[in-house]
Amino acid sequence: MSDINSEYEKLFYEALRIRLVEEKIIELYPDDKIQSPVHLSIGQEAVAVGLCSQLKLDDWLFINYRGHAFYLAKGGPLPELFAELYGKRTGLSKGKAGSMHLAAPKHGVMGASAVVGSTISHAVGAALASKIRGEDRIFITVFGDGATEQGTYHESLNFASLHNLPVLFLCENNGLAVHSPLGERQAFSLAAHAKAYGIESVLVEDGYDFVKLSAICEEILGQIKVKQRPILLEVKTCRYKEHVGPGEDFEAGYRELSEVKAWKAKDPLELDKRLIAKFTPAISREIDAAVEFAESSPFPTIDDLLTDVL
Fold first, then answer.
1. Structural domain for 220, as ranges
2. Is the pLDDT score of 1 beyond 90?
């Protein structure tokens, strides 16, 4: 966009683009054209934008099933994303992966999984292989606070620290594992736990601030590059929509609407009406073209069933 005039506007544009993409998914979902469950990142876009603004193409990003934001922020193509959600042959995984298993290796997005915490160890293993080969690359694994209760998370921290691996452990802490709040699940502090393994940790409370997150990620990634040591970055954030699906679920009673309203009162994507008006038309045209690509693309056939299966 030639009319982006500052770093703030650039980051705002990327974050707004993610939000409008997911709002389009919400719009389309009732028609049953999207052939996949969706875990939306609305409210959490700043984390992906802040991180990916500082990543190189050949830095490897291991995401989880709530991965649209990171896929897009890392450069994953939009038409192929919508085609994948539609289950079409032109999708990024030929319609076989859906929303929860996004992968775009050419852009450094190394694949998501519906299994909680499962890609954490993948990032650590890839970092070890890269170190053995003498490569110059950083590995990032993204997970929610619920994943830190999995055994693979604890084992991965230990292994990454023991072998001095260049891994950024990035926790999007929205305080929820489906409907279970943090206080009902964890007797430990993420920072203190990481420290027990000799891993430095950084906490960002205002996870809506993509400019601040970009600056912090720049500093952290620089440290990992120089020291060849893992770091844990915990970002407090807020999930606006239900755990899975396009709707809201406040009637479930596990959280209050006031909590989300308090977060929205600080969210630039809610507050900056000038930039919303400035950038929405161009983003909307891009989204409409991507949806048209998905709509007009063919479905897989029986001949595609066993292709790309190892």
1. 7-296
2. no
